[in-house]
Fold each of these.
Amino acid sequence: MRPDPTIDGIRTVRKAIWDSVGRDPRRLVDHYMQLQTRHPELLVHEPVTETTLEAPRASKKQ
């Protein structure tokens, strides 16, 4: 796998957040819920349709 500075940066931030909540999954969820409450304008809302409710289909390689 090639090095990817963008992915490395994302992993660094995710680890810092994980460490900041004491590696507690419940506190991690609370952290993200608080962010959603503080910044609702950043949420992406996808309309619910039959297509979005279906499980993703595996693509066949030919």
Amino acid sequence: MAGCPVCNGLVQLTANCPNCKHVVTDNLRVGELFGPYSPYEPLETVPDQIGMIHLNTCTHVANCPGCGTASYFLVHVRV
């Protein structure tokens, strides 16, 4: 089973806002937006409901504290 190192608390999401370059704050895995049990499902079984299908990645939503922009970031999963 593949595992996201950010979801599993092994590392923190480190990314910059594409707008203003501030460090963003990770909010959640995109799959968590789509159902009460989706955070507990393996990545392979959670449908990619925003049309971003990427093999071996976990899509996270992050907000910028500087300008308020919400962005998607892809985290490579460990297989």
Amino acid sequence: MTVLDPPRLLTRPVLVLAAGVAVNRMGAFVQIFLVVYLTAEGYSASRAGIALTAFGVGSVLGVLLGGAATDRFGARPAIIGSSLLSAVQVAAIPVTGPFPALLAVCASAGLVAQMYRPAALVTLSALVPPGRRVLATAVYRFGYNVGATLGPLLGVLLFGLAPALVFAVDAASSALFALVAYAWLPATPRASSTTREAPPERSARTDSGPSSGREPSTTRGPSPPHGTALTRGTAANRGGPGKRGLSFDGEAAVGRGGSGERGARTRRAGYRAVVGDPRFLGFAVALLLISVVEIQYTSVLPLEVRGRGLPLGLYGGLVAANGLIVIAAEIPVTRVVQHWNRGTAIPAGIALIAAGITGFALPGAAGLVAATLVWTAGEMVAAPSAAAYPTLVSDDATRGRYIALSAGAQGLGYALGPALGIALWARNSGAFWLACALLGLLAAVLARWTTVRAPSTPGAGMLDRRGGEQEHGAGA
């Protein structure tokens, strides 16, 4: 068996999604070059910073809006709509004159640019069975990270040729992603009133046992083959009194209770249904806290390196090493981590991230290198499991919103972290590093509490066999 296990995981739609995200990220230059472009155009640094903040705020809101749009209209339309609107808005930035109008365009560009993220993960959850989602998420992240690593290099080249090319190519990459989604991604159904309505822990399922080598199936029928995207039921399953719909898991979803009124109420409740899940809310808070800590590598770390009299090239090398190691090693690492109890993988990865960021307080270049390795290891352990987790604990009617809330929490942490971190570091560097350690510890504890006993969707595969019933015992 190869590292990527092609027959079971790398179906064409999964590869198309990963490649599409890579292309999209490779052309996503706005956040990196917006301040440089606007100051070169004569705007003050403060106004350029305000414009970048508007883009960031729009991005956080866009993830939340994208989750609602995914649940309402389906994942594929959300990806296509987000990408096309992003192409239009980004292309408008260099031709927008008055500053208030520019702020509005930047905010709307950030909003529509991030709407695709929940839809992409919902699509991924439709393409693979639940027990394979952690590894599939690592493949998705591989495409994302390759694009994010190569993008800035391409952006520098384009900016040197003509600054406006940055926005033109960004818009073109978004339009290309929309075309890829339209041509090659399968249509995922909108969550209907006939999708799973009962809370996950009430869903009856059988467990094939850890030694069987098969994914567990629900008591309502066998699970589809690995890699099956969206399996339609028989004609009888698509109509009549017991009307069955299509679930994002690729299984026929059975309307519990006949009329599906509870499912309809869940959809109408919107984000209230997600916020009303205290354990998942705690998980989102854990992501917020660790994001505040992790983003310090972009804000405080370069100041720390310069403050010690070390070359800034060292900082660039540390960040580049992180990206290259993640690209090269995350999928092999995930092949191992996917079999861990999720109540272990996510908090352990979070703890390693916090230890690595806090480790940047160690003296000398060797200390910085060691801290980077620990931080990178934590990212590879936690990120795929944390990204897949919302798809494993949500039902069809709210899956997009669950994904959006977790992504929005991360985005908010990334937005707040730099300003908070720099302010505290400038006042008292020792207190800053201690705060990173304490926030990371709190995030790990929260992640442990919220994931170790969380209910799962039916047929959650290896994650349930090692993290379902066993989670309730002493061996958790």
